[in-house]
Amino acid sequence: MRPIRLTVTAFGPFAGTQSLDFEALGEAPLFLINGPTGAGKTMLLDALCFALYGESTGGERSAGDLRCDRADPDVATRVELVLELAGHRYRVERQPTQTLPKRRGEGFTTRSGIANLWRVDGEGESLVAERRANDVTDAIVGLTGLSADQFRQVMVLPQGRFRDLLMAPSKDREAIFEQLFGTGIYRRLQESLSAAAGELRRRHGDLKQRMAGALAGQDFESLDALDAALVEKAASIARLEDEWTSTQAAQAKALEDFNAARQLEAGFQALDAAAARQVRLDAQRDDHDKRGRVVDRADAAARIAVAHDRCLEREGEQSRARASRGDAIHQRESAEAAIGEARERLEAARRTSDHIGDLAAELRILERHRLGAEKLASQRRELANVAAALDRANGERATVREELTTTRDRIAALRAKIEALSGPAANHGLLESRSERARERLAHRRDLDARQVALVDEEKRLARLEAEVGARRGELSAAKAAREKIEARREGTAAARLATTLVDGQPCPVCGSVDHPAPARSTGEATDAMLAAARGREEEARAASNRVESALTAARAAWETGRDHVESVRASVEDETAETLAAQVESLAQALHDAASAKSALDQARRARDAAEDRGRQLDAALAHADDRHAALAERRASLAAAVETLEAELPEPLRADGAVEARREAAEREHGELLRSREAAEAHYNVCATELAAARERESGQALALARAERALADARRAWDEALAGSPFADAAAFASARLPTDELDRLRQIHREFADALRDAAKDLERTRAAVADAARPDVESARAAQEMARQAAETAAESLHRARQRHEAMRALRESIDRLQAQADAVDAEFGVAGQLAAVASGDNALNVNLQRFVLGALLDDVLGQASHRLAVMSRGRYRLLRRDEPVDGRRQSGLDLEVEDAYTGRTRAASTLSGGESFMAALSLALGLSDVVQAHAGGIRLDALFVDEGFGSLDADSLQLAMDTLVDLRKEGRMIGIISHVSELRDWIDRRVDVTPADGVSRLRVVAPPRTTTPMP
What we know:
The protein is of the alpha+beta class and 1021 residues long. It contains 21 helices and 18 strands. The chain has helices at residues 41-53, 133-144, 148-154, 164-167, 170-181, 184-217, 223-282, 285-350, 353-426, 428-492, 494-499, 528-572, 578-649, 660-726, 733-739, 743-774, 782-844, 854-877, 919-939, 960-975, 988-992, and strands at residues 2-11, 14-21, 30-34, 78-85, 88-95, 98-101, 108-111, 114-121, 124-131, 156-157, 882-886, 901-905, 910-913, 948-952, 979-983, 996-1002, 1005-1012, 1016-1019. It has a 7-stranded mixed beta sheet. Strands 2-1-4-5-8-9 form a 6-stranded antiparallel beta sheet. Strand 4 (78-85) and strand 5 (88-95) form a beta hairpin. Helix 7 packs across helix 16 and helix 9 packs antiparallel against helix 13. It is flat. Residues 1015-1021 have low confidence and may be disordered.
């Protein structure tokens, strides 16, 4: 990194704006920053460090302390630095938080600090980071690879701080070297190894815990107990399988008996249903016979219904024919009246022929005047348009003048508003940062409060689960004791059960004797069902206990996780309450809202000002255009007025008005056309009336013939109906009407009659069939058969359930044995893997003879290179007496080492701590170390190039010879292309260094000037 130009305003002792052009000092200058005490030499380094990191070089002065007290109150403190990094140029600008007079009104306002960073190239500048000081600082750290503290230790040796890098402990020196040399990969590697070893250790413990938990979960004290239980359970399964086989056979027999009884009972129920159906049908026979008689009479009526309906139809036709003949007579009479009226209208129309000829002559005269009238009307319209346009032009000119005045007033008001809003809007960036930090603290505080409440709830739940675990364990113990008691009782009654099988005269299956003088007697009941039930209860109690213990383990893990999180969150939250933080957030939000509103208003005001200025320019141009148009319109109006006067003289007085000729012509044409159309319409109407009269007379004749035909057809239909009624079983038409039924009703009654007859026949057949099915059999007791079948089923299910539980338990124990075998194999594999990974992690983390971790081992090798370069320069400056070394053995066995320094003294032949050096010796050692570090950093590929070094004082502690040697070293650096800046009061340095930056104070204010060969002085602005 190399500074190019530094510009300060109202900074330190510099009241105005002062610039320092480093390029004016030469390509690779060795220069002296010279001036009396208090002139502000160190403030130049403070400005350099402040521009980059927002801090002073010493770190003691805050940004607010850097403002010049003698500066104009209206001038803001500002620092700008142009620098070169890796072949690219950047420009950074910072302003600290400062109090300045208000732009409007009286009093002062606090402006938040701002910072901006640009990248400078041939096409201009591009913004890298803006407004937020922290963002710019982060960007600088990313570009340089140095934090503020590391910058002060490596590139700037501030007054009183040049021993820091030399005396820094291993931990601080490690942070500097890691950043400079990019050795974080080794730190991440050792952390990865430690994490992997820890994970293997945790996995091994988890596997062992899972094996123990799996055995305890199924109530086994050891693996041997599990194996013994597996053998016992296999024997129990064989016994239960025999019991289950016998109960299955009994269940099949009982089911067969039950199905036979149920089938026979179904036959008896069918016989009962058939008999009941026969009784119901016999009760409905009378209704069936009546329905048959109704159907017969309706069939007879249907046979003569055609003649009856045809007679009615002919009566309707005769009535309609009579009505049609009356209508025809009425139409003929109307047609005769209409033709008389049409004849009178035709004669009146023919009397208008003379008036039609007069109208045609007038139309020919009006056609000759039409063109002149149209031209006159056109000229009048154009004249009116021009006059109206002239009036509008006058109005537009007045409007433009008024708007131009208003716009100019608005521009002035907007400029004043922009000035007023600039101050409040500048605080937006600082308030946004503070508001964001306050919201983060409030979120952490609320998260902590919520998690503390949740932790209390988890503790209560943990207590409840612990109590429930105790209760479940008690229930399991009681169930186990009950099962063992039944097993013991069953073993004690085994002889009694055997005694029940003994038969007099037959040998005992145990002793072989045929005499049984004293068979054993049962002292208590202990059946297989009782034992199976007890075992089932024990399994249920064990499952419940396992579930509760698993829940307790999960709850305890959740509580521990919550507790750890609460502790970690509490460490990051201050003692402020959520209410206090919420109030701060609300206050900052309001302030931020006000600042945002001011910023938004400022942006709107600027846009409005720009728009108003644009509008003002447009209005100026519009006013000039309106004046030109007004003059042209006035000239055109005078020309049109003369033309209108000429055309009016050429027309008769009544036709000069606009549209008069056209109106008269249209009226004459309309009247002429109406007369012609009236005559033509009268002739056409007369012809139509004559045609309609002839047609009406013809219709009247036809309707008379139709009426005669209808009357003859009615007489024939009445004779046919009388003959049909006489041949039917009905005495008269009334009897026929009462017997006649609608077709769908008759069909329905016929269907009901047929269905009832079919039902009688089917009922008789069903009764005969069901009686034959049951024959002479007795009615069975189905409920007894069902009860016997249910008892057999329950016995079989009980035996199957006992067998199933036994098999499940055996399978669970077998699966447990396989699971433990797998877990043990995994634990052995993890243990073997940990043997390698754990050793690697321990060595990489510093658990070795040197007490040095992997990263420090790598950094130690790099430090050796740095010390080699530094020792070369220190040996020259100390005349071969001192050499810097790295201490190999640990300084303190309780902490990491490997980067501690010591000094080898050639005068004594011994090494000693660097802290034992005198002030001048410490300065030479620190200077050598900084130069050596710069050399090694630049030598490594991808390293950071440090092209500049600034030394603030320290030369006064050297004697003349040492000073000469130190200067020779710095001159050699200049030959290597390095920029070396020295701040010192030593007078000899002015004779040795031909390039200077003079800081000259006057009346409490300092100015800068550069002095460079050939001894010409360039005043600074």
